[in-house]
Amino acid sequence: MAQLLVLSSAAGGDSVLPSLELLSHRVRQIPAEAAQLVNAPNADIVFVDARKDLVAAKSLCKILTTTGLDAPLLLVVTEGGLTAVSPDWGIDDVVLVGAGPAEVDARIRLAIGRVSKEQVSTRIQTSGITIDESSYSAKVHGRPLDLTYKEFQLLHFFATHPSRVFTREQLLSEVWGYDYFGGTRTVDVHVRRLRAKLGDLEQLIGTVRNVGYRFNVYEDEQLPGSSA
């Protein structure tokens, strides 16, 4: 059962998408006004009513997408309104007002599934570290790390290439880029700072003598502070 939020300027008795009444999802409808979004309830899916006023609906969709809407955005339109819909609306899918319950339910499942897949794909968990690619943040055992952008990039590169040994020149090329004119000394400096911030897990970034560095992978019971 999903939590659905419907944004519509229609009168209270007007059903925006009749098929929703035949499904078991929880539906909440509020006025399609920007001011209403401040205290809008959390939802797994947001529907925007575009049956009658396409211009207002497009404006509302753009407001939702530019303010960082986390839930999928679905547009409810008439068949005639389909011709006005374009990628710059920022929506995830369209639903015809006359769509049957099975189709509407399928679109809801698929939209939620896509979001779940994207969230998983942007998160890396390994050896006590959690890296969130979408927010450029990292945690050690749930504790947020205060990393600079370059430190985050270096940690992300190590974590996505576990156990591989990289020379300082390779790290400089991969993390700083070919157009960086600084010396390899900057790699050592950033590794040292990163280790300091990792605390008990500083050994995750291992030194290979006369070669470079690598990301060591450990099982949970092997990590410092584990009960094993």
TrEMBL record:
Transmembrane segments: none
Domain of life: Bacteria
PROSITE patterns documented for this protein: OMPR_PHOB (PS51755)
Any one GO molecular-function label of the UniProt entry: transcription cis-regulatory region binding
This protein's name: Transcriptional regulator
GO BP annotations, alphabetical order: regulation of DNA-templated transcription
DNA-binding region: 121-217
Database matches in InterPro entries: GlnR_N, OmpR/PhoB-type_DNA-bd, Sig_transdc_resp-reg_C-effctor, WalR-like, WH-like_DNA-bd_sf
Domain OmpR/PhoB-type: 121-217
Recorded GO CC terms: cytosol; protein-DNA complex
Alphabetic keyword roster: Activator, DNA-binding, Phosphoprotein, Transcription, Transcription regulation, Two-component regulatory system
